[in-house]
Design brief:
The complex is a heterodimer. By secondary structure, chain A is an alpha/beta fold. Chain A is built from ten helices and seven strands. Chain A folds into two domains: about 5-40 and about 175-230, Periplasmic binding protein-like II (D-Maltodextrin-Binding Protein, domain 2), CATH 3.40.190.10; about 45-175 and about 235-240, Periplasmic binding protein-like II (D-Maltodextrin-Binding Protein, domain 2), CATH 3.40.190. Classes of the chains: A alpha/beta, B mainly alpha.
């Protein structure tokens, strides 16, 4: 269950409350439900990635504000995903809503469309077919994850000193993933043990290299490749899950009308 | 059915009809299969959606149907499916002729190879198409070579043209196999006779072969139409996000908006359209023809005239451009590494342990795929074989109904079927929760119509006097089947088996819903690898795709070489 669908599950009262003792080592900012019907398990940000080599070669500055993306330098340079079909696509839309406000974000997207943004259906098309930093594409900017640069190093064909891609910190939207115990379960005790286990250092330290997201507990050690090549921004865009839940369909519809039709 | 009753019936009746009881017996398995694994899950999911508060809400139906966006989507769905089908037929019919009637070196390999595109996951193929249709394509390098810098740049990415070309790529094999399967058995002397009497080559084809091929062409048309009608990945990736089919909207409503009422209404709309087109198709099918069939070895001849050679070359060139080029792009990418070309990605697939994003060693996906596909093929052959036999020998109306009903899964959204499996088959009466059996069952659902469609035209063409003669001579129905039908049908049965296997190996839409993490198939594994950043993941996904191609082609070649009973000597 991630941030964007959280309110739906809470409204439907799918889960029962359980406060794991391990929550003591989980920062407050990840605990979005005060009643603990859901427990945060991992955190990962959706961020713009850039092709390091392209920006070096072309002597263009890496943008450090979303507003710059509508400028001439970045015409035809960005690939994003359809928020109606892609979860990182939706996260990036939410980042722009947080950055420009509900009244102005559509203007930004209209400008972006005029600036020849390309919209793909899913993440892999954008990343592997349009982005120049990882695949066969010719666009140096793409919506991806904060963990993509370490993944590029970890899953490289040869050993890399530096990640070929970078993250634009000022574009990140926070996504937290939660686990909840079903209200109707016949095995509440076992379920609670599972939640505790998912917050244990064993599980939490295994998360980065398997799911390429970050642990939520403070006492988990990050793998080397994450320490060296990943940065989780301190101040990402965030939106109240209930605000997202209430407006998601409207925002997606408005976005579709502005960008695709 | 007892042997005596059957014998009397066959011997006494003027046509080869069996009694209603016999037809019913043949239909037990197909009806149970369709009922339990299609009607029940799909009805469950659709009704769940239509009754959000426990009561049927028909207001929702009207609301969805009167939405102009939905109407536009529905129109585009029908339009692109019709044009795609026409294009596929136009390209595929000459191909079917070449691969079934002309003899040349490497024909068997080629016949197996043209089926490969059909099984590949759309995600992977679409990516290859983007490379071939984009500004850096070989076509553009060629244009630039000829016209210099002033050359126009051809960019077909995110166009309707790209969708149509890709649909032809995927479904070429459907035409080649269903039409070619019958064409290979037509007696060439029929056309020869027409030619001797002064008909031109075209006239001889139009007036002799075409009417005889009509049932197979109708089958191919129906299948291609249904496939393109429910097309999903191709439309999304190659057409760009601004274009949507009903299938795309169902997927969006189910997985993103979690709007089950909307998804249900759309699924119903899709079903209605599919059933309507099947009724139309059924009418076209009713006029069947009977003709003497010959062994495929006798029907094919080498190209003799210059025109024939030119025709052959043109078709081979088309296959190379349309079918081989995207496959080569995939193979090239699978070999490409940071240190130049090599087998790194293949080695990784076989040496990697459970410590990957798949949670199981990747090679297990290959084993899973083959196991599930063999199981699905067996199920499809049994269900489809019984249904086809019933359709040919039973009473017209019942048989036509079953024949049409078995086609419906082809035109039903994979999301609907997959989701229906999840919520309907997880509790008694059918509790298959988490069972790996769900995978071949879902695959067989898609493969069965192909078995029926491949067998029917051939079964219908058998001269019933052969069966009657055998019956008069005292043969039991079982013996008649073994010694009259099987030798003739054997070839078609092999074609059907090969096709079923290919469909099962490539099925993704429903499989991804029911395959648990520990049982990934090759397409599911490819999808998961492509969902992660990193050159190794991309390379391994391409390597897995290439293995998928090789496995499919090899299986089809092996099946093509099998001999069943007297097949080939008839």
């Amino acid at each position: 269950m991630d941030t964007t669908f959280l309110s739906r599950a809470l409204d439907e009262e799918l889960f029962q409350a359980y406060r794991s003792p391990r929550l003591d080592v989980v920062p407050e900012r990840y605990q979005l439900d005060p009643e603990h019907r859901v427990t945060p398990v991992d955190v990962g940000d959706v961020c713009l990635n850039y092709d390091v080599a392209w920006f070096d070669e072309h002597d263009v500055a890496v943008p450090d504000d979303l507003a710059e993306l509508t400028g001439e330098d970045y015409e035809g340079r960005l690939a994003v995903m359809n928020p109606a079909t892609s979860s990182p696509g939706l996260a990036f839309l939410l980042a722009t809503i947080e950055r420009f406000g509900v009244d102005d974000y559509l203007d930004f997207w209209a400008d972006l469309r005029d600036n020849d943004v390309v919209v793909t259906d899913g993440w892999s098309q954008a990343y592997y077919d349009e982005f120049s930093g990882a695949g066969a594409g010719d666009r140096p900017l793409v919506v991806s994850y904060a963990s993509s640069p370490p993944a590029e190093v970890y899953f490289a064909d040869e050993e890399l000193e530096e990640a070929p891609t970078g993250v634009i910190g000022a574009s990140c939207f926070r996504q937290i993933e939660f686990v909840g115990i079903l209200a109707t379960t016949e095995h509440p005790d076992e379920a609670q043990q599972l939640v505790d286990f998912m917050l244990s250092p064993t599980f939490q330290e295994d998360i980065p290299l398997r799911m390429f997201v970050f642990p939520v507990v403070e006492d988990a050690e990050l793998p080397e490749v994450f320490v060296e090549h990943a940065q989780l921004p301190d101040d990402p865009f965030e939106l109240d899950p209930f605000v997202i839940g209430e407006n998601r369909e409207t925002w997606i519809d408005e976005w579709t009308r502005t960008v695709l039709r | 059915m007892t042997d005596t009753a059957g014998t009397q019936r066959v011997a006494a009746g003027p046509a080869q009809r069996r009694g209603p009881a016999a037809t019913a017996a043949l239909l037990v398995v197909p009806v149970l299969f369709l009922g339990l694994f299609f009607v029940y899950p799909v009805a469950t999911i659709v009704l769940t959606g239509l009754r959000p508060e426990g009561v049927l809400d028909l207001g929702a139906v009207w609301q969805v149907l009167s939405d102009p966006v939905v109407r536009r989507v529905a129109w585009f769905t029908v339009w692109q499916a019709t044009v795609s089908t026409a294009l596929t037929l136009a390209l595929g019919l000459p191909g079917a002729y070449v691969l079934s009637r002309m003899r040349f070196r490497g024909r068997n390999v080629l016949r197996a190879a043209v089926t490969v595109p059909f099984v590949l996951p759309t995600v992977v193929v679409a990516s290859a198409f983007l490379a071939l249709l984009g500004p850096q394509s070989p076509v553009n390098s060629l244009l630039e070579g000829v016209f210099g810098a002033a050359a126009p740049t051809l960019d077909l990415r995110r166009t309707v043209t790209a969708i149509l070309i890709a649909h032809a790529f995927f479904n070429y094999a459907v035409v080649v196999r269903t039409v070619g399967g019958l064409w290979a058995l037509l007696d060439p002397r029929l056309e020869d006779a027409a030619r001797v009497l002064g008909a031109s080559r075209w006239q001889a084809f139009r007036e002799v072969s075409l009417p005889l091929l009509r049932p197979a062409i109708a089958s191919a048309t129906a299948i291609v139409f249904l496939f393109t009608f429910t097309s999903f990945g191709v439309v999304l990736i190659l057409g760009g996000p601004a274009r949507a089919t009903i299938e795309v909207e169902i997927h969006r409503a189910t997985t993103q908006l979690l709007d089950l009422p909307l998804a249900s209404v759309l699924a119903l709309l899709q079903l209605i359209a599919v059933v309507t087109s099947l009724v139309v198709y059924g009418r076209l099918q009713r006029r069947t023809t009977q003709q003497p069939l010959v062994a495929s070895e006798r029907a094919s001849r080498p190209a003799r005239t210059r025109g024939e050679r030119r025709f052959l070359r043109a078709n081979l060139a088309l296959m190379a451009g349309l079918l081989a080029a995207p496959l080569l792009v995939l193979a090239e990418r699978s070999l490409s590494t940071a240190q130049g070309y090599g087998l790194t990605h293949y080695r990784a697939l076989f040496s990697a342990t459970a410590d990957t994003i798949l949670t199981v060693p990747p090679w297990l996906a290959i084993r899973n795929s083959i196991t599930f596909a063999v199981a699905a093929t067996v199920i499809a052959l049994i269900v489809g074989g019984l249904a086809a036999t019933a359709a040919v020998t039973g009473h017209g109306r019942v048989a036509r109904f079953v024949d049409g009903a078995l086609m419906v899964p082809l035109g039903t959204s994979a999301v609907t079927v997959g989701f229906g499996f999840l919520i309907a088959l997880n509790r008694p009466p059918v509790d298959l929760r988490g069972s790996p059996l769900l995978i071949p069952l879902a695959q067989a659902l898609i493969a069965t119509p192909f078995v029926v469609r491949t067998l029917l035209p051939v079964l219908r063409s058998i001269d019933h006097r052969l069966r009657e003669a055998a019956a008069t001579l005292g043969a039991t129905p079982r013996r008649i089947w073994r010694e009259v039908d099987l030798p003739i049908v054997g070839r078609a049965l092999l074609v059907a088996a090969g096709f079923s296997f290919a469909i099962a190996v490539g099925e993704f839409g429903a499989t991804v819903f029911v395959a648990r993490a520990q049982f990934p198939t090759m397409p599911v594994a490819i999808f998961r690898m492509l969902g992660r950043p990193g050159a190794a993941n991309f390379g391994q996904a391409m390597a897995m795709s290439t293995i998928l191609m090789v496995v499919t082609a090899t299986a089809l070649l092996l099946i093509d070489r099998l001999r069943v009973g007297q097949v080939g000597r008839f």
